[in-house]
Design goal:
alpha+beta, Arc Repressor Mutant, subunit A, 10 strands, Jelly Rolls, 11 helices
Length: 272
């Protein structure tokens, strides 16, 4: 089996992937704490790319836009433990302590330096995945609370992220879409992140761009793909997953329709 996920609770899972790569989009409804055991994870954001390797631990904040590309490496599968930090749980934790000052929270992935407390907490989860049924929910809850407490201890700045429970407000749609068009998200998610209903999003989008979201997104992604191919020299498979296309065949078809040649054909012409 190429991809396998084992849960010890709805909030804690162990994933293992042995194919060439596995791609998904972020913009999760909950914070996600990830401990990478083997393989490599590439996080593609609008303004930066970040690569994580074995032993790295990082937090993906809720509603953060990013493309996640997971690769097996060095003969080992991509293997990671992921822990969902729900808003409900965090509200309970923070309501009993001192109030956290409201600050502007940057949308960024938080990487944690290796620390014995964090390493031991996450490593202690591995034996639990061997228990297939009836894992005590109380123990799972304790492990999540332990991880949150450790994060707050080793990096106090993370509290501003964990204690921020605000929902997206209405923002500049044009600026947001120009920055984030490469993420392959449903329109419902784009509308939510810009603080609009789907109906209002489509109406405002039409006024701003004089076309439909689907047509605009395809055009923008193809323009970015063409630039990365011609100017950056990236491989078609790499471009495909970093510009919002679902798979290589769909990307090649759309690219050829737009530019008269597939990415591979265009590269061949350039090398002659």
């Amino acid at each position: 089996m190429e991809y396998q996920v084992t849960y010890i609770s709805p909030e804690i899972k162990l994933s293992e992937y042995q194919g060439k790569l596995f791609k998904t989009e972020a913009a999760f409804d909950e914070h996600l704490l990830v401990w990478l055991i083997s393989g490599e994870t590439k996080m593609v954001q609008a303004d930066q790319n970040v690569v994580f390797g074995p032993g790295d631990t990082f937090l993906i904040p809720r509603n953060l836009l990013a493309t996640i590309i997971n690769y097996p490496k060095d003969g080992l599968p991509h293997k990671a433990v992921a822990m969902h930090l729900s808003t409900q749980r965090l509200r309970e934790i923070f309501k009993t302590g001192d109030p956290i000052p409201k600050t502007m929270v940057a949308q960024r992935i938080v990487s944690f330096h290796k620390h014995p407390l964090l390493d031991s907490c996450l490593a202690s989860l591995i034996p639990y995945f061997e228990i297939q049924d009836n894992f005590p929910a109380t123990i799972a809850s304790l492990k999540i609370n332990e991880a949150i407490s450790i994060l707050r201890t080793i990096d106090p700045s993370v509290e501003a992220i964990l204690a921020n429970f605000e929902t997206p407000g209405k923002i500049d749609l044009v600026r947001f879409m120009e920055k984030n068009f490469m993420f392959n998200l449903p329109l419902e998610k784009f509308s939510y992140l810009t603080g609009r209903s789907l109906t209002t999003f489509k109406r405002d989008f039409g006024k701003a761009f004089d076309t439909t979201p689907q047509r605009w997104l395809t055009r923008k992604r193809l323009e970015l793909a063409y630039y990365q191919l011609m100017e950056k020299g990236k491989r078609p498979v790499e471009i495909c997953y970093e510009t919002g296309f679902e798979n290589l065949s769909h990307f090649s078809y759309a690219f050829k329709k737009q530019y008269g040649a597939s990415p591979s054909e265009l590269l061949g012409q350039l090398k002659r």
